[in-house]
Design goal:
Blueprint lengths: L2 H26 L7 E4 L4 H16 L9 E6 L6 H21 L3 E6 L7 H7 L12 H21 L2 E4 L8 H10 L5 E3 L6 E4 L7 H10 L9 H9 L36 H8 L6 H13 L16 E2 L5 E2 L5 H18 L6 H32 L1
Parallel strand pairs: 1-2, 1-4, 2-3, 4-6
Antiparallel strand pairs: 5-6, 7-8
The structure holds iron/sulfur cluster.
InterPro entries: PAPS_reduct_dom, Rossmann-like_a/b/a_fold, Sulfate_adenylyltrnsfr_sub2, SulphurTrfase_DndC
Protein name: DNA phosphorothioation system sulfurtransferase DndC
Keywords: Transferase
Length: about 375
Amino acid sequence: MDGAEALALEDERTALFDAIRSDLLDEYRQNHDWPWIIGYSGGKDSTLVTHLVFEMLLSLPPSQRSRPVHIVANDTLVESPLVVQHIIESIEEIKNAANAFGLPIITKITRPAPDQSFWVNLIGRGYPSPNRSFRWCTDRMKILPTSRYIKSQVDAAGQVILLLGVRRSESSTRAASVGRYDNGERLNKHNDLVGCMVFRPIVELHTDDVWEFLALNEPPWGGSHLKLIGLYRNASGGECPVVTSKDDAPSCGTTSSRFGCWTCTVVEKDRSLEGFVESGYAEFTPLLDFRDWLASIRNDKERRQARRRDGRITITEGGTFIPGPFTLQTRAEIFERLRNLEAETGQRLISDEEVDLIHQLWSEEIADHGKARSLNVREVVKGK
Ligand code: SF4
């Protein structure tokens, strides 16, 4: 690129960002009091949206900062360790700075209900590690916690505007999902959430535009975007964005996921954790090995019960037998290995509440099996 071309590109970028800023300001000043909710994943795109909104609020006199802005992140409880640390720290920085500046910002980290966590479903109920055809995790661990929060705000305010950092050029999947929201207006109805309008202020930006902005501008809440840039440098692949509907879900747990769960067996290989390990975070190697082991036992028939949890046997129309959940022995083995992993890495990977729920589910299942067995015996005796 020669000097003239570089200057033209710079002018184009400046115009793009000016247009985004004026869009944000215009929407914020609309004559209603619907709160804004920013879906914050800690990744580059939602960080940029948060940055621009924070700056816009700062630019307004206090009397005009009337609309509350919620910044909502989700922690699946099995996020990649460095990523969850970044989310928690950055949300804390944003909250402190917003308080200091008197901005109407409310921060929130949503989490799955303990009963629906990864470990309770995998070890407690024996759900096989998620894969493409049985991806039970995204709904329970990502969509529901965020949706619950959005719905609570809809209940309180009647309507909300959800700001998402989606970009058309991020990937073909994203382009398709953006297309579903595209009615030519600034605000589009959310496909699943009633009372929620979607606003995608940076939809037309390209990846380079985002990086250049983050590299050249310090966050208005203090610190620097270098930590975030470092996270991307250390991991490989793309981005696992905020997921609020099944239409967004294909981008979660794909080979390009960067900010996904460290336990993700939907991907062939965990590119994100692998990237961290390659960049010197050797302490994540045991997590990576554990994830690979989980993926490897998924289709081992010896480790799966014949019947599903509701007692049915599943045979597809084509005659293929689909095994049920992991056997209790395998669940106990996963649990023991997880505890050993905690001891090895010095990290807390499962909470006491989850452990209690797992034990409760096991006891209920053992009691149910006992009842079923005694019924079978009576039936055999009757049949004689
Ligand atoms: S990153 Fe993987 S394990 Fe986590 S919710 Fe998405 S598909 Fe499921």
